[in-house]
Amino acid sequence: MKRTLAFGGLVATSGLLAAGLAAPAHAAGDVASDPLATSGIAVANIIAYWTNESNANLINATPYNVETTIPSKHVSTGGPAPDSKPGIVPAIGDEKKTASKSKNINLPKTTGKVFFTGADHKSHWCSATSVQSAYHNLVATAGHCVYDTETNAATLDNWVFIPGYYQGKTPWGIYVGKQAFTHYDFDVYEDGDRDYAFVTVYNGLKAYNGAVAVNVEDNLAAWKEVTQAAYNQYDPKIRATTTDKAGKTHYWARKFIDAGRLGDNVGGQGLAYNQKVGKPVFVFGYPSGSHPDGNHAYSGQTLKWSYGKTFAAQAPAIKAEELVGVKSSFTGEGSIGSSWLLNYKNTRRLGYLNGVTIGVSDTDKNNRIDTSVSPYFDGELYGVYKAAYSLWSGSIA
To answer: Which residues, 6 or more positions from 109, have their beta carbon under 8 angstroms from its beta carbon?
Structure first.
């Protein structure tokens, strides 16, 4: 099912709004939502998956390359248009502030990587960013970095967000996904025009004292006593037993330290929707992989940026007729989910999320990637965002 938007005039929005957003009309049925981790034991096992053996699965994860490169003949001019009035949501900390202009590019703390296991049962990652929400617990990325488009299972497994990730380091903790939200048309029909997702995450978690004790007796403070029934559900690598002098067996599970809310630690970008096409945006992400000519331009290890004006685009190959594009040399692997920030201000490293990369293309056919594309952020996207905006997650340490 394809949503057809009426073409019409566009009204640009500028400045920061402290309050009073005019919410566009949207049907509740347009939002699809699926749970990710629903219990403390599930969260602990997901953390264990990524942190066991000195963060081996994090370090060895590869960039997700599903649906990344779009054939050039399938990228053409299109006609996205707003479906209601333009609007913005201010970033965390910018609700009543304005930022001065700056020429130097200071990279945002909000950007990081989402890690998950794919249909191949291997570890992968995409780019993502923290965005404003009622409980400072929301992450935005491409829809196919959350929903399993290969097997049509509901969601990808072991889903976590790590802001500022670098070579196995998790400076602000690991944030396990709680609930995923996307548009109904992407969840059911894989509509490329709706290839975006918002995920609520629990408070960040860190290993106790940054290390794992081999034996419970070596560091009792790093473990918590649990029931035998709970013990049986924990990953074997994060559980242990001891026997007291009376011969009674005690059951233990790894303890994790609460690192606080995502938005409190790294901030959260604002959101802009129904904006005029043709505005300049900064694109922030972790591109990796090679250009078609074999040149390995990016490692995926460090956060990169590009800058350009958006333009209307189409990509029928991924069922997308109402996209926006931007000139960018970001290669597809790793850059999927990159944040497109409108009116980005260096002094606060904040702006308005106005796109997420869902694919790249070599449009001039010179064997070099030159274009990134994103769904157009309209009122239906805002409806999905608002469905996720007020969902509490809290601590599950």
So the answer is: 163, 164, 266, 267, 349
